[in-house]
Amino acid sequence: MDFTHAILRSHVDLATFASLVLLGLIFCQLVIRSSQVGGSLPRRNVIATLLVGFATVGATYGFSRLYEHHQRHVLEGVLAAASSDLRDTATRDGLDLTQLPKIAERWMQAFPSLARLQVQSVPATGKGTILFDTGIDLNGDSKHDREAEAPFLPGTETDVPVRAEKPAAGGLAPYFQRFGGKPFIHLTEFISSSNAGVTHLILDFRAGSWSAPVAAARIVSLLSGICIITLLLARPCLTCIHEAELQRRAKVEESLQKAREAADAQSRKKGELLAAMTYEIRTPLTAIMGFSRVLLDSQLDGVQQRHVETIVSAGDRLASLLNDILDLTKIEEGKLSLEQIDYSPIAVINDVIDVMTSHATKKGLTLRLETPLRESFLTRGDPSRLRQVVQRLVDNAVKYTERGAVTVRAVWRPSVENRAEGILTLSVADTGVGISANRLPKLLESLQAPDSKSAQFTGPGLSLVMVKRLVDLMEGKIEIQSTINLGTTVTLQLPCSPKSTVTQPGDPSATRPPMLASKRALVVDDQALNREIVRLMLQRLGFNAETASSGEEAVRLARVQSYDIIFLDLDMPGLDGFATCAQLRGLGGDYRLIPIVAVTGVTEKGTRERCLVAGMSEYLTKPVYAPALKSTIGAVLPSDTPPRV
Length: 645
Prior knowledge:
Elements: H1 3-10, H2 12-34, H3 43-88, H4 100-110, E1 114-122, E2 128-133, E3 157-158, E4 175-179, E5 182-194, E6 197-206, H5 208-296, H6 302-333, E7 341-343, H7 345-362, E8 366-370, E9 379-381, H8 383-399, E10 405-414, E11 422-430, H9 462-473, E12 477-483, E13 487-496, E14 520-524, H10 528-540, E15 544-548, H11 551-560, E16 565-569, H12 577-586, E17 596-600, H13 607-613, E18 618-621, H14 626-636
Parallel strand pairs: 8-10, 14-15, 14-16, 16-17, 17-18
Antiparallel strand pairs: 1-2, 1-6, 2-3, 4-5, 5-6, 7-9, 10-11, 11-13, 12-13
């Protein structure tokens, strides 16, 4: 019996299907329970799966039994009809054997699945005798396949047992038999009996003619059931897996969010710490730098002069370092923004040159500005950041140049597409030691330091990194060209839209802000040293300066005395700078319009905007330098304002 018939008869396929259904239920239950979501397979899915499984098994088995019954009925009819034909040829002496070949040929043509017809006489005792045999037709080509089994010749004795005697109550008892390695349905039917023995008709049908449709139908039915059950079980499993993945992603995102918040909090704490540190350092640094410059302008001998110059130089570098560290931190946190106000870039450059001239002169260098522009050339942007950039470049040039000159050039060129816009090109050229070519590409990418083992210049440290970041914020470009022992040129290209026409050399309208004199100023600061140094700077500019140690004292003085300008520290105990400004403006009269300049060590984003909203005119950062003080006064206090009395 072949595999197909073994399955059909023993129902291995149904047992396999049922096992797969149970295994599927167990597997899905384990998948759901082991997932992060947990729980169990929904009861409705379990019930639906079992119902579909039972329905599939029942339908498959019922169809097979129905088809088998139908085929049995057909075969019974065929066998009965063939037996009737043979009985019709019987005579008193037995079957007419001469008619058997015609009968066999007719029946085999009528039923292509009929592979063999045999008539056999079985005596009561002894071996049976073959009366007629067509031989086996394995392939259905109406030809005897001799290689499978040779036909029995008439009169041949056989030991093959006959499987069915004359049925007591009629019916059919088929069984499977193999010929030539192929299965056949073997049927026997009683024909007649005599003293010589019992005559039987034996028919062999190819089993594939009816087993193949049954097998195909069972396969389709079982596969359909598997597909339906897979859908029933897969949906909750996939839903569970999807929810587990969503929960995993949510946990990952939550952990990332917590890590981000922790990093942001740490960054804020670092920024706050740096801001607090720089503020605390700026306050005494203002006094150190201011009194050092006062000493520098007094009567000193040579040694004292060098000592004070060293203090001033070191203080300037310390202040620059503090600014760079704080600004780099703000850039990394994305908190550094640029102001957008009208200013003169040439005035900014002149202020830087004024500050750096003493350093250059001390080293025997010439520091000069070459430009066709004048201070009446106005543009919109952030003057403090431009001052920071230019000062860093000039400071580096002076620092690494031993002889020769440092030249600052400024040129504005209109855009080809729009004449109202253009590029401001600034360059700082020195005749110093230069930078090696292999270090130029990395110079602006990371912090560099001078080589302690040689005199060759290898990098300006934090300064150029800060310059690069600020130029990027200004949407500009920076380029460095250098030759060893010949010098270095740093070129900036900044977008620039002028607010007035470019003046040419000799233009009488190009004048510096006038020196203001005989005007009254009030310096308000809780630190005595800071009050004193700002007072001395104002006196050098010609002001009659007074001081107040608190906001309350400033308000009392303002009630009895008029001032042309007030410098107000923001961070004071009691009445702070903002509250003091509000009370001063509330005095009415001239105090609603007089310039009030904030002086603070806080450089956080939005500080200037807060000061302007509070009613102040401008603000200065500590340490206060004389050029910046002078420039601020020129911006907020008109030169034609009559002095207060």
